[in-house]
Amino acid sequence: KNDARTATDAAASRQAAASGRPAAVTVRGARKAFGSKEVLRDVSLTIHEGEILSLIGPSGAGKSTMLRCMTLLDRFDSADFSYGDLEVCTPERGYLPQAVREARMRFGIVFQNYNLFPHMTVLQNVTDAPVVVQRRDKAEVEEQARALLARLGLTEHADKVPDQLSGGQQQRVAIARALCMNPRVIYFDEATSALDPKLTADMQQLMRELADEGMAIGIVTHEMGFARSVSDRVCFLFDGQIAEEGTPEEVIEHPVDERTRSFLSRAE
Ligand code: ADP
Ligand code: MG
Q1: Does 62 contact ligand 1 (Cβ within 6 A)?
Q2: 175: CB partners within 8 A, 6+ apart
Q3: ∠ CA 19-199-205, rounded to 5°
Q4: Which atom of ligand 1 is nearest to the CA of 62?
């Protein structure tokens, strides 16, 4: 109980510190419809440098749509949307093509199924985008990639192909690949759904280290236990709207909104 108290206090003070730091990504008033179905209805969300934010909520709430739009795989119908001081979309002017290209350099994504290139080695998976997309020097990128692989415990797997690795190892390759782009924001889609408890704990520690280095981290998850223990801040999305937002203590332990309460009581 004391440990829980301490963790809660730590999350609250981290959140207070993070909210004073610059925003790494900001979305205000986001709207998105598929046909006549409004999937995002005036959603606002900010992730600060050094902050871990989880987006939670029931199936169909709009979490994946929000993530797809924030990662420019899809587009909001309307929003005020920036990466740092780079305005990507405004309600008046829509998407700004040059800013969209620049914004793609500012974030990395770790997909649920990792999306590794099956025919490339681990090292090639990690170096491909920095060399091809970012047009960086190949030797310099390889040096960074090997350092990242070492950090993630993958040194001896550098020349293997993804099929030769376990799920947890493949996920760490996906993380190394995202980090090698030197992003300011990293997104995780259901980061822990395929991991055992030990790997989940490792993942939590890694996310905390990255946040402490200043990375902004956005997580979409349906796993309340993980969201509870890793997040500085939690946003509960319900039917295309943020129903509740706050520390994990506030949103997951003591929800005020009736929709959050009902979802969490069913999720137990
Ligand atoms: P979540 O990730 O929270 O489960 P989604 O963002 O996947 O929610 O979906 C939100 C709503 O949008 C759902 O009703 C879903 O059926 C609908 N939806 C998502 N993608 C599409 C699409 N490409 N075309 C039509 N409807 C979609
Ligand atoms: Mg989803």
Answers
A1: yes
A2: 110, 152, 186, 206
A3: 30
A4: 6
Angle between helices 167-179 and 122-132 (to 10 degrees): 20
pLDDT at 158 over 90: yes
Answer for the pair 204, 226: CB distance below 8 angstroms, yes or no: yes
- What are the distances in angstroms from CA 7 to CA 12, 39, 70, 164, 202? 9, 34, 29, 38, 17
ipTM of the prediction greater than 0.95, yes or no: yes
Look-up: residue for tokens 């280095």? 213
CA atoms in the 13 A half-sphere facing the CB of 178: 25
Average pLDDT over residues 27-51: 97
Confirm if 72 and 103 have CB atoms less than 8 A apart: yes
Q: Is 239 left (phi over 0), alpha (psi -120 to 50) or beta?
A: left
Report the 10 Å Cβ neighbour count for 34. 9
Question: How sure is the predictor about 160, in pLDDT bands with cuts at 50, 70 and 90?
Answer: very high
Q: In whole angstroms, what is the distance from residue 241 CA to residue 258 CA?
A: 14
- Tell me the two tokens of residue 229: 């223990």
* Nearest protein Cα to ligand 1, atom 26: 34
